[in-house]
Amino acid sequence: MNVINLTYLREREKKEYGKRTITVIQEFGAENIAQCMQCGACSSICPLSISGFEWYNKKLIKGIELGLRDEFFDDPTPWACVACNRCSEVCPRDVNPFEVMFAMRRLMIEEFVIPPTALEALRSLYEHGHAIYVENRKARKAVGLDEKPPTTDSNEKALEELRIILKNTRLIELGLFPLK
Amino acid sequence: MPNTTFLFFLTCLDNFGDKLSKEEPRIGVYVCHCGENIAGAVDVEEVRRFAEKLPNVVIARDYLFMCSDPGQEIIKKDIRDGLINRVVVASCTPKTHEPIFRRACEAAGLNKYYLEMANIRDQCAWAHWHEKKKATEKAKYLVASAVAKARLLEPLEDRYVEMNQNVLVIGGGISGIFASLDLANAGYKVYLVEKEPSIGGNMAKLDKTFPTNDCASCILTPLMVEVANNENIELLTYSEVESVEGSVGNFKVKIRRKQTWVDWDKCTGCGACINVCPPAARVPNEFNEGLDERGAIYIQFPQAVPRKAVIDIDACVKCAGREFGKPPKVSKDGRKILAPCEKACPTGACLRDEPRDPEGSILEIEVGAIIVATGYRVMDKKYFKEFSPSSPNVITALQMERLISATGPSDGKLIVPSDIKKYKEGKNAREPKVIVYISCVGSRSKRYHSYCSKICCMYMLKQAMQLKESYPDLDIYIFFIDVRTTGKDFDEYYMRCKELGIHIIRGKVGGINQLPNERLLVRGYDSDIGKPVELESDIVVLASAVEPSQGMEELSRKLGISIGIEGFLKEKHPKLYPVDTLSEGIFICGCAQGPKDIPDSVAQAKAAASSVMSLLSKGKMKVEPLIAEIDRDRCSGCGICEPLCPYKAITITEKRKKEKKAELNPALCKGCGVCVVACPSKAIKLHGYTFEQLLSQVEALSIELER
Fold first, then answer.
1. Domain A6-110 has CATH 1.10.1740
2. pTM above 0.95, yes or no
């Protein structure tokens, strides 16, 4: 159905979730979401809206206000945010749309709705200190470089510190992958 | 007597005029650039050179802004130096600038009616901006015409008429109340006319008011009482304006007082009669916007001022066969058979014997100025078929005000309107869980009203906020086209609503379906998400358009003031004279002039009151001598002019030799000229626009210009 049934959404919030979606998103860090007046400044410069993603910042905020939630779970938009932060720079109401996008990611992780790429990025961050890690030791060796890049990846101390940080996040409770 | 004074003036003038007019006219022509306004289209220098050659013109000059101090000084100097004795200014409209140049002439010692203006800006430069050659040509013609008239100008003197110091205020809403109080406190006698039994208007129906959410009754009732207690205010409620004659300073007004069938001197407002009026006589209660019913005998609302009962004779069922206008029947045992209301009245105020007078009694008053504050009404829901108007749970926002008001049909308890009857019967009434608001219902619409009703956004947010604060579990959805919260402190309402979790959805509702149990299915569109939305609601509130109150058109005709295409009263100038009308001495304020909120209405009311004060406080009024004069020797007494005069300034009188002649009251004449053109004997002359002057102007327009 292409029609959004507001009565259903409200009932679902009350009975199934026990909380308004907007409240959950506020608790996940987007405290100012209710200040949004749908002016659209954030969407005029958002790489997601420009490149044609469905639930870019302004629409996501409105959807959350109406009580949409599970409807976002199949959508790649929140994970596509490149965190450029331009939306927060231009917002006249200090809504911080970027924070809304990330609050939605947090909600999705909480609900174990994690796209494989996101999970892979997390695992890679934990293992190598890089969200995106290119496995190219042979090639590096062949041109006379060290097997590992001169980053956290090759710095045992730094990597250990990073893992301590990650072990102190919700990752430890969620158990998405073993934190060795 | 202004009449004799004026005649004396004229006699003096005739002699004086003769002396001056024997002097050959020496005309000075002053062409204004008006910055680029004229010079941008008209070749000013060419016009000046042309003017120089016209007969009797001794000087022609041009200047960037003739109306500026240095511009006026040029004219004054030429007069003082004895160079000129007539002035022609070719500039803008005399409507705004003639007084300025007249004052300049007067200051330099020249009779100010020796001035003539040629409007080469509004009707020439502006109108022919892209045809510069033709514009210049037209400017020449206009100047030639003005010069031709200037040669024949006669000196005139201003006259003065006494002004009546009483004021009529029409409409007893918040605007009328404030205008009356300000005037009364300044010492003017005020007649406040209100068509309903009580003053208070629409504001009395409101629960809380934006901004700052004051309770409407708390701030309005003391003012109403103040009106009633003010010795300078004569309160005429349940009355309407019947006719208006005369003009500024001297209006004669007839007020029709509707028959109440209750002696208001005796009525104490106890309400005993109301409780005994039978169910059969119940009709929709106007004060509660039809949400419940009232009896045939009723007091408009609990805080009514005056708190007096009236009988709605159309609703009365004539209990016990008790007819109006007749003495009561007598029973076999000799007792009078009275209606319950009569029996219940402890003071004998119920006057059913009184002869029926459907026209009501007429009260004649004289006033110097009039303020029209007739307010507004909201559009009925019946026009909007797409919103299921037949459902009792689709209501207007004003009905919602009544529903949440402590004096409303449910004593302020929020219930669905379809259960009001149940509530009154003491049964369990359903409380709404969802309320939907729809904005711009009939406003910003080509089908109904093209204007924005201005107050709806604010009262919707106000009501929503009020409801959500009192009933936190209530779900409220407001469908907007645009949220317009303009002005100081107003956007706080929008923010507060959002913080309270009230849904504000951009997009209008296109349809409402009725569901079982008087619930409603609302079909809207969220233009931010770009999808249709639907929801079930218990109440739908329509923010229906603000309209001029009933009878506005008729009243405007009686007063001789104009209404705009939208039906509201038209102000003299939308920016500079917002409370004045084109009829001098008649002022407007509040929603009669256009939709506005309480702060703006009060501001306008006070502006109108102060305009009246500055008009009347002088006591006498200067009147231009540009009026008609009747030559009794030429008058044949045919009487054609008498009924034509819109100001009733002409009467046909028999004086000497029992000869019938037309006589003109200069205090009433406005110089419109209707009588002048109608007179078959050419016996009437209009000063400032004589036949000779006008014909000379026409002649000047027919000259061949050198090309």
1. no
2. no
